[in-house]
């Protein structure tokens, strides 16, 4: 199957990411949307339709929250869709925008991702109490971190991975985030700091985890013709992919994210990438936990199974390495307002590929890959951007 | 546009289904839809979309629990946070990109699992401005109905006639949950929920699942002898601020219809549309939506409805299926119930309630209180 | 953030700001209650747990035994065929040690969590449960464990009718 129309990214915007922001969800959506429109030299009048990405309603505490957020996202009296795949939503929202334009129905689309996790008390984690199967899982009173610890342990045991190598992801990403003005948890830390940090759910320690955050991000997408009118340097969405695995996660081998591999294969096929480690210049794999960056590098077929930790230890994934991972600082460094964090990765690709990333700039970047992950360790969403 | 519906499957619609889980219901509807389309989901379907809202389900991230029973494991699957018609429209766009040729759409209601429905609807109101009143959230509909009646001169009796008609239509729909022979007095004398809105003006909740298979032109011609073509689609959200809306008219539906009609080449809907399935969450909403779709002049729908214009044997039948009021309020799935009825009618498969010589139909949806969001699709048996 | 964009948007609030009078919040708790239908597969699963047994479903086409049971096979997309009892024993597939409760509060005595691959189910078919009566230092992937059940008269048809899994003493 061949895609009929090429879709460009012509603008990107983002807010601060913080544990709490004073702005409401609507206001955050507005700030990010407006920043993206300004960067594209456009106004809302130029926009045909809006796609919203935002994760569980239980954070904001509003049923059908996309309907509440829509005026902030500029969607009043416009066609408006919310696409939703749990934690994978951030990278999925530009995929939703992509099909609005690639279908030929629209020429311009504003993609907004918002997350306001702070209203949920006593802790945003409380919202995660309701993601479980109510009959067979909720009676055990699970905490979300449990299942990631189970996955991490399985991954470590299967490939005999030392915790030190995993800890390097936190050191790298928090360090990269020092150059990201939106960042919530930028820091210069050491492997020892990570290994000595409080154990939350073994083997997950405090510095292995990204924080809950408030924030928003936005992209402006257009058809090829329209892109040329607004910019000399459009960034192209050349590959999209997504895949959802079984809900019965205790029936799957957690050592490899097959759903990410399926999504990546779909995106690479569309982008005509046959040798990902050679043809991809940098990536923004989803890193809500340290081990996830490694797990996802393997899922993205950028490293062989079990080998991402070694590449990380060798410095390959540093910003000046051969295959930089999360030059933005990722969720571990910039913060994790869930859907907005995923879209932040796509914003980063836009800036990198336009050579606008300042101190974070990866040299010679022509092809980037962003990926997010979500549901019950179950969904992979992947985009390939090119300059 | 060249996308067609090539298979439909659904459960019956029932007021409660305590013996079976939503997964088992989805499996039933999916098997029927895939059988109708002659496809194997593990091989032939490229993408799956479901319409769901977390608080209706009682899950955060309901997306987690859909792939297994749809045959969608390790395939492109996503949730659309909207009604079934919005999911369908997103599926249409996916096919139109050229990336996919066959796509499945699912929408469902397991409303009987919800113990505190008014509490859920209240949770949809703006937390700062609209939630503090401690009143049934259908007050929003009461406000809207009052203003609509006031501005258009429509009467409560004319709204009641919608209820009588839709319950009556449902008697010929074997899948309907709330078919009844009801009189005007039954409706007029039922108790007020939010004056002027009475209990009988409100569609009762039901459970049910609907699955549809969409295909590109080439694939549709291979798969089906009776594909139903999507000629135009439109969708729109008006302001989320209930205080600053146009209460008297459904602006979102008018704007969505404008887009869909333009795409479908419909210039005179009253002449070109053979029948319509519109949202009737509340009786007066059917009238508002008929007007927004241009199926009569503004403010005339009540009078025409009373005169039988929109009855099954009338000039322009509306909600022959029974709509939400007769077939049951399936939450996000009622939008697909409207499409389902159009498909069955256009294929000549509607049995006792078959509308004669229908070639083009319109399906319209609304997401309920407190939204001003909805979709429109124009469907035809001819490409 | 692009180097071309200089202004940062958003106003940070600290925990202290939240307590201050200048910051207004509106508190509410959703009235959202549900009675989820267990359906055919889970009803049988829960009824059998009450009887001290674990039941799964077999798909004859792929010849897998699925636990927890379901009425459809997600791989073959067909109805599963028969009920199959599996053992209350198995091996630890993976485990973790939680110092957080469900609301992310710190707890002193950790909760031990595991995915247990059950004997009699197909390879890799596990269930989530807790571990008990075990030395933390000795827990390992592959460790043989067995279900410890609540006394018969205290069972209520829930996954918690199994209290936890404990190590089987290796001979």
Report on the structure:
The complex is a heterotrimer of chains A (387), B (383) and C (171). Chain A is an alpha/beta fold and 387 residues long. Chain A has one domain: Thiolase/Chalcone synthase (Peroxisomal Thiolase, Chain A, domain 1). Chain A has 14 helices and eleven strands. Chain A has a nine-stranded mixed sheet. Chain A has a two-stranded antiparallel sheet with strand order 5-6. In chain A, α4 crosses α14. The longest helix of chain A has 16 residues. Chain A is globular and about 50 Å long. The mean pLDDT of chain A is 96. Chain B has 383 residues and is of the alpha/beta class. Helix content of chain B is 36%, strand content 18%. Chain B has a nine-stranded mixed sheet. In chain B, strands 5-6 form a two-stranded antiparallel sheet. Chain C is extended. In chain C, strands 8-7-6-9-10 form a five-stranded antiparallel sheet, with no helix packed on it. A three-stranded antiparallel sheet of chain C has the order 2-1-5, covered by helices on one side. Chain C has 171 residues and is mainly β. Chains A and B meet through α3, β3, α4, β8 and α9 of A and β3, α4, β8 and α10 of B. β3 of chain A pairs antiparallel with β3 of chain B, so a sheet runs across the interface.
List keywords for this structure.
heterotrimer, A: 387 residues, alpha/beta, Peroxisomal Thiolase, Chain A, domain 1, 9-stranded mixed β-sheet, two-stranded antiparallel sheet, 14 helices, 11 strands, globular, B: 383 residues
